[in-house]
Amino acid sequence: MGWFDRLKDGLVKTSKNVHRSLMQLVGQGHDPAVLEEVEAALLGADVGVRAVDRLMGRLRDEVGGDPIQILRKTLIEILAPAQSDSIEAIIRSGPKPFVILAVGVNGVGKTTSMAKLASRLKRQGLVPLLVAADTFRAAAIEQLEIWGNRIGADVIKHRQGADPSAVVFDGIAAAKARGIDVVLIDTAGRLHTKINLMDELKKMKRVIDREMPGAPHEILLTLDGTIGQNALAQAKQFHEAIGVTGLALTKLDGTSKGGVVVAIAEELSIPVRLIGVGEQEEDLQDFHAEEFADALLGVNE
Fold it and tell me: Coil, strand, or helix at residue 275?
């Protein structure tokens, strides 16, 4: 199964509901009951109130047109600003070492995503360095070490319970000494509502900037695609606290409604760098607006 097919398969529940309600609009014009069903299907897909208002407004304005194509065109308009250059292109055009600070709450797949990204960058000829700044969870340090051994990437670590900022300091020093292309810093999962943990994250950011002015060059927030509007709330609060520059959306492979990508694109000006559609390394892919709109609507590529 190809990547687009896996994405489409992951969003099949959503696409079936939305597609079925849209098909009822054909020839029905402004039937209020059918429009209400379409609106409910979009809200149920976690597309978000603001984006749904925009989509429904377009459907009402263009009565008589193909509702699926109207919705597809509007979705692409919403999603296109969230599409960016590939992460490799961004790194190659940026400073060396290019520093990525990975943030997010527990359980979103942040550590795994950073390791997969390191593997992908290595295949593209870049030299990555993994920094295990999640010192709260011993398993996170071990997990990153296992990945480092598997993909042939160095890992900077301290013992469990060490000061994360100290690990970050050593990571930046090692990267500069070894001629590393990109530093991927894995941080502890933290609830966006916990002020002390967010302050710890801000401290890490200050240490990075002190050791390499202008860094981190990317603050990458990993979000779980299965949690719907909670992901939007997390994105807003992390962005306010630390200034997120890119998003990685994981778990779009079976249990996700997926529409939260639309809500985020509509409400926040943050690029979606990566989306995950499975457990394999190659399942971490660039975000493409048209492909995502087609998968969400169940349209063939």
Answer: strand
- Quickly tell me which residue has 């930046």 as its tokens: 172
**What backbone torsions phi and psi does residue 102 show, to the nearest 5 degrees?**
-95, 125
Domains contained in the chain, number: 1
Q: If you search the block for the tokens 């009402």, which residue do you land on?
A: 60
Please say if the pLDDT value at position 71 is more than 60: yes
Instruction: Tell me the per-residue pLDDT of 255-266, one tens digit each, with 9 for 90 and over.
Output: 556 788 899 999
Q: What is the per-residue pLDDT for 209?
A: 97
The whole-model pTM stands at 0.92
Question: Domain span at residue 180?
Answer: 87-297
Domain of 106, CATH number, reads 3.40.50.300
Rounded to whole angstroms, how far apart are CA atoms 42 and 15?
10
How far is the C-alpha of 175 from the C-alpha of 173, rounded, in Å? 5
44-61 per-position pLDDT tens digit: 888 889 999 999 999 889
Continuous H helices in the chain: 3-10, 12-25, 32-44, 49-61, 67-79, 87-92, 110-123, 138-151, 164-178, 195-211, 229-242, 260-267, 289-297
